[in-house]
Amino acid sequence: MSHSRFKVLLMAAVLASIQPVVGQQGAPMPSGPLKFGGFAARFGGDGTFALEGPGWPAFKGTWKRDGGEVELLTAGEAAGGCDRAGRYRVTIEKDNGHVTLEVVADACTPRRMILDRSLWRPSGEIVPVPVRNIVRTGATGRVTIPAATADAGSWPSFRGTRASGVAEGQHLPDRWDGAKGENVLWRTPIPATFRPGLYGDGDASDDRSRQRWTVYAIDKRTGTIAWERVAREGEPIGKRHIKSTYASATPATDGRIVVASFGSQGVYAYDVNGTFLWKVDLGHLDVGAYDIPTFEWGPASSPIIWNGLVILQCDTQADSFLLALKAETGETAWKTPREELPSWGTPTVALTPAGPQLVTNASNFIRGYDPGTGKELWRLGGSSKITAPTPVFDEGVFVIASGRAPERPIFVVRPNASGDVTLANGATSNAAVAWSRTGRGSYMPTPLIYKGQLYVLANNGVFDAYDLRTGDEIYRQRLTGVGNGFSASPVAADGRIYLSNEDGDMIVVSAGPEFKQLGANSMGELLMATPALSGGVMYVRTARSLFAIGRPPS
To answer: What is the DSSP letter of 389?
Structure first.
């Protein structure tokens, strides 16, 4: 919990935009190799067609042109409609050889996912990176920012301090029921929009309705809305993943200032009394599938506040960067470019024996930085092509994981790392990496370090426990009551671990070397967000509400 009186709520935007391509339908189809995202294609002059990309089925067959359309037929036997022809509208830029395809009819799902709305460029063409203009708007007049109060019970950002997810001394009840009100101290309606389901379907929502991006401050004792501020109102800049909202990021606070990131909608700062301080327009953050750029899922990385700086991780299809803004004014303190694929994890700052370190999870490299300057300190390769979990620091090590196959790694990194610490082929450790595993990383939930063990929760409900020091597996257990899967990250208190599935069931597991499920409690609503712990209360954000779970006062 952030401020002693308030919990500030927010969810972040998932955005996408497709720029129309104007060209000539009568121009000849280029016969040389073409590239789009992670895919290569060739429309041979002899009528042969080839399409391939890592991790996807290869399509080889024939093609023919029919005016403004092209028909593709895959050779041989193929399932799922891929043995039938697919038809696409085609636009060809005569001057540069760019080819745009838009589906007319294609029963083959993977072929359609790759080709629909795709823009193909000649292989080897360097794609220009658009200039990003970061625009700050400050409050008019002088604003006196209130002093911070005692931070006892603080949960200042996503997953609490150092993203640990741990808060002892909560003494939570054994049972609760969101629908019946059992051990529910209060419930405050706050709507959101998302749909449950298993990850991998990749659809982006076509929700173009008018939206309001709002920051709420809620009295943590009563559930009363103390203040709410509409940061922006209008049509979304782009699309969102079907399992996300237009406000997925968790706000951050230092007890004086509250910062909310709405991705392409901007970053907004208020004092804890709701007085506007500043906003920063980052421009369009195109965050989506690394191999199919037309699937834009939108950002989810949350801001953090460290030593008077608001730190943001912005990894996009076009350009990637870390940005530090001065918390009081929104002015840029430093900006560090990165060569990265889109990512969704929140950065973490921890005070280590080697000094403060800012660690980021991303596909090309996991990286450590000096949070005061943005200077890179170390980098570690071997991660997944899609990274969502947040790095965590506890008991002297960083843990970074990701769950996209085939890598799906877990890395346990010592804070004295320096330079390129990528593991040699076949190695699982080195001077900087205490231990690692492949095939065990989590896709969405952030791992949990608790009482000498590392817990990793997969989307499908497989729950692993490892010895944090050695990496030895302690147990591997498939949870009961998986439902539509797990997106929220585990949290822990008083020897208990809380695991929230998307159907709203919160499974309680005993911490320790033996797996023991203690119970399961229903919130009665869809649940995607990670709970927060503060002052003997668990705050649970569901699809429609904020719940306070705790023991009633005696």
So the answer is: S
The whole-number pLDDT of residue 10 equals: 35
Please indicate whether residue 238 or residue 267 has the higher confidence score (pLDDT): 267
Contacts by residues 27-33 (CB-CB < 8 Å, ≥ 24 positions apart): 27/92, 27/93, 27/94, 28/92, 29/65, 29/70, 29/90, 29/92, 29/99, 30/92, 30/97, 30/99, 30/122, 32/97, 32/122, 32/123, 33/122, 33/123
Cβ count near 170 (within 10 Å): 20
d(CA 505, CA 520): 6
The pLDDT-based confidence of 427 (bands split at 50, 70, 90) is very high
Measured distance CA(203)–CA(196) in Å, rounded? 12
Provide the token pair at 50: 């080839």
CA distance 403 to 411: 12
Report the predicted TM-score, pTM, of the whole model to 2 decimal places: 0.92
Indicate the Cα dihedral angle 201, 206, 207, 213, nearest 10°: 80
Chain-centroid distance of CA 241 in Å reads 11
Query: Tell me: the pLDDT tens digits for 2-33?
Result: 443 333 333 333 323 323 333 445 689 999 99
pLDDT of residue 195: 57
For 305-321, write each residue's pLDDT tens digit.
Answer: 999 999 999 999 999 99
- Residues 523, 444, 212, CA angle at the centre, nearest 5°? 65
CATH classification for the domain delimited by 6-16+133-549, as one of 3.30.420.40, 3.90.640.10, 2.40.50.40, 2.130.10.10 = 2.130.10.10
Count the neighbouring beta carbons within 10 Å of the beta carbon of residue 513. 11
Mean pLDDT for the stretch of residues 24-48: 90
**SS3 string of 498-512?**
EEECCCCEEEEEECC
Bridge partners of 87, per DSSP, are 71, 105
Token pair listed for 301: 């990385």
CB-CB contact of 31 with 42 (8 Å): yes
Domain locations in the chain as residue ranges:
6-16+133-549, 34-116
